[in-house]
Amino acid sequence: MANLMSSTQKPWEHAKSGGSEHDALAARFVESLSYDTRLYKHDIAGSIAHARMLQHVGLISADELSAIERGLGEIQNEIEAAQVTGWPGWRIELEDVHMCIEAALIEKIGDPGRKLHTGRSRNDQVATDIQLWIECERCQIRSDIERLIRAFIRLAIDQGDIVIPSYTHLQRAQPIVVGGEAGAWKEAFERCRCRFENLSFDYSPLGSGAIAGSSLPLDREFAAKQMRIGIMDLVTDNSIESTASRDNVLDFAYALSMTSMWLSRWAEQWIIYMTAEFGTLSIGDAFTTGSSMMPQKRNPDMLELIRGRCGNVYGHLVALLTICKGITIGYNRDLQEDKRHVFAAYDTVRDCLQMATAIVKSAKFKSPDMSRGFMDATSLAEYLVTKGVPFRTAHQVVGSLVRHCIENNITQLSDLSVDQMNRLATPLAAGSPPIDKIVYDWLGAENVVKRYQTYGNAGLSGYRQQLDEWKKRLGGHDESPAPEKSLFGEDLKLDDHDAALIAAYEQAGRTLDDLPYTDEFEAIYKSAAGGRDRSAVFHRLHNLRKAGKLPKLGRTAQAAPLVTDEQQTILIELVTGAIGKLSLRDQLPFTDQFPAIVDAFNARTGLQFSPYQVWRVVAKLAK
Ligand code: ARG
User: Fold this and answer.
1) H helices of 160-206, where?
2) Which atom of ligand 1 is nearest to the CA of 32?
3) Are 360 and 159 in contact (CB under 8 A)?
4) Catalytic residue ranges
5) How far apart, in Å, are the Cα atoms of 140 and each of 114, 376, 417, 553, 556?
6) 493 with 473: CB under 8 angstroms?
7) Between β-strands 163-168 and 171-177, what pairing exists: parallel, antiparallel or unpaired?
8) What Å distances lie between residue 21 and 24, 128, 482, 577, CA to CA?
9) 555 pLDDT exceeds 60?
10) What is the CA radius of gyration of the chain?
11) 411 near 371, Cβ under 8 Å?
């Protein structure tokens, strides 16, 4: 073995006299480690699935499997303990996340580790990893979008009745209300979210090998079923295509691009609203910047960056399309570049979504001067229609009234008397009943927004009619049993402490199951305990969740650290010893019993799990 290793350190390059690790330029050029370490969890999940399959078909023994599982579990814990980037196992000369983890495994457990790659190639490995990554991260994006939607709904609830102009061609069109516009953005982002929901990659590429499959009796379906994350339990039908394509990455990048496109349109709209000329909107000071020269300035830089970063995201999509263009059907190293772009696009869009949500939450609308622009002209034409005037004629009549106003410096149609209106209308609409005083109910922005009655209109009835529906649609994605309550809280009277607690929980951004013994929990406790101790805070959060009062954060809890069956048994024993049943686990955090369980568990297993890690295992076992 040793003489084989002497020519090149790369365990997969024995046929060559030397590898790129001997050439600094080549080593730097070929690596993807600088951007693919974030796949570590998925790489380990895929490896465990593969190892279980190898054992299932008799290619490795049960002992070898448990050594592999233990080794990979330890590696995952080490990586997480080192906050990923600090893990010493990342060795650039090994090129990528896959080889580093495998090398660390071999170092840890020896020969069983050398069996892991049986029937596998980095080509099907990376295809699997990226698919698991997308499966996992699209949930994050969806919940980011959900929060933005919620902010728009909140805006509609709080400021929905404020009358503002609508614009076509950026010219004043018809009066609308803020609720109507908030609903428009909500609708667009709802569709963005659906795009992520509809991405479906239930087919596992694992077992496709390098390109042609394997002569070993691999059970691909069995491996697919082992995948811990995602729902892959079907397998792809062609080993060549499944190692050669990145359609999933492209679909994901397209969904990101569409989200970015909408963010950019929204940002532009609100930048315009914030100008003195439009005078319709102000946003939180934190989201504007000053000028180094002009003391009065409050520039909408955050919105501009959201608008601008759409360019980056499109760039990544186009880069991905171009990378995939013209490569032969089979893995080519070009495909390694996919991650650079999809990760960057993902990070950018998440950032922008979070910033957008904060801005929407801070928005304050005000009605600008609605008297200019004759925005009630269409309403007046519709009034005439109700009198039996054909619409084309009504359009002509109102057109001539508007012209008359402009020529005589009259700013509003409602400044015309009924007589004046009739005098101007009669020659055009001869034989129609005369205009009467009722006409003033059809004029003026305030009146117009009350008159719209078509479903989906941008006036008062349009958004109010849909509010209930919005609650339901949001509710469908909420964690709680009565989710709309968590948003609008109609029934349950919350005390001040609860309101602060819920706000702190949302702010902390970590789901309840994942919260004990984290910094986020401490932050909640510090800011919103309201005199309760830690354990009581945790219980209160549980009760609030049960009552549907906690917003769904959507973050999937981090995967629990891996433990062997034996370690599991020890932990179950300790927990049931303390509280009787595993299902009562929620009683445990922040009691005196829990540190004792952690100590006993670590002592008996030789592990060094933190209380958080032990809790995560307990929570997983209880499920
Ligand atoms: N890091 C590589 C990637 O991301 C792994 C695949 C390398 N495969 C190969 N046949 N050289 O695509």
Assistant:
1) 178-198
2) 1
3) no
4) 169, 291
5) 35, 44, 59, 9, 8
6) no
7) antiparallel
8) 7, 26, 58, 53
9) no
10) 31
11) yes
CA nearest ligand 1 atom 11, residue: 333
319: its two tokens? 């880069």
Which range (99-108, 481-490, 602-611) has the least confidence?
481-490
3-state secondary structure of 289: strand
Can you give the pLDDT at residue 404? 96
CA-closest residue to ligand 1 atom 3? 336
Q: Which tokens sit at 318? A: 């186009």
- Ligand 1 is surrounded, with C-beta below 6 A, by 32, 96, 122-123, 126, 331, 333, 335-336
Which pLDDT tens digit goes with each residue over 151-187? 999 999 999 999 999 999 999 999 999 999 999 999 9
Q: Is 15 exposed, middle or buried (0-12, 13-18, 19+ CB in 10 A)?
A: exposed
Q: Which positions ≥6 away from 256 have C-beta within 8 Å?
A: 141, 313, 316, 317, 345, 346, 349
What proportion of the chain, given as a percentage, has pLDDT over 90? 66
| Straight-line distance from the first to the last Cα atom of the chain, in angstroms, rounded to the nearest whole number | 45
SS (H, E, C) 320-363: HHHHHCCCCCCCCHHHHHHHHHHHHHHHHHHHHHHHHHHHHHHC
Q: CB of 487 within 8 A of CB of 471?
A: yes
Buried b (16+ CB within 10 A) or exposed e, 30-52: bbbbebbbbbbbbbbbbbbbbbb
User: Ligand 1, closest atom to CA 335?
Assistant: 12
Structure-token pair, residue 45: 């999940």
